[in-house]
Amino acid sequence: MIVPEVAGAAADELDDLRTACAEAIGRLLATEPDTVLVLGPGARTVRYGEADHGSLRPYGLDRTVALGPAGDPAGRPDLPLSLLVGAWLLHRAGAPGRRGGQSIAPDASVDECRRIGGDLVEGPDDRVALLVMGDGSACRGERSPGYDDPDAEPYDDAVAAALGKADGAALLGLDPELSARLRVAGRTPWQALAGAVDRTGLSWQGDLSYYAAPYGVSYFVANWMPVGSDRVPA
Asked: Nearest 10 degrees: CA dihedral of 86, 90, 96, 101?
């Protein structure tokens, strides 16, 4: 629904969310990272390259989106929706530079997510920025995809607080079983984010710019930066 052509007549209902996403990505790109890695949930845990792509056709829009800035859909055609939307946001912002992607399966353990995140930021001296995609609970009200669950709002409030304070330990503490019951898509990439920032050994600060539950699904937009620096965003 964040893609206006998919949302159709309801597109303006998510204008605030699109604006928050655009501003967050603008802050990310302003740090001039060498590589942007899009991290999100998927059916399988897979590393993706720039030529890998996906299609919005199942959602009513005949458009193919490649992960990389060149827009060349020559690679694998199985980019999951989270990475597809992340690539669309980067294209929309005119983002230059190298890109990659990492999907994480919904049943990945906390330790596996932590390891994946740490591996993403370890290696060459390139400055890597992470664009982390993931929804909160889908149980915020009777019209939500997962119907109403009284545990959904407290869960999302805790996630919002953790994102706003760059509290990786709180994200690592999210319970996989409760997350699955509440149909939370973001649990695995959030925990990989926590593993990534932990591997850096730096202190981090967060800025939560959006938190709402349109259509009964919770969305968050936040930026994480190392304390005292504007050069390594997540």
From this structure: 0
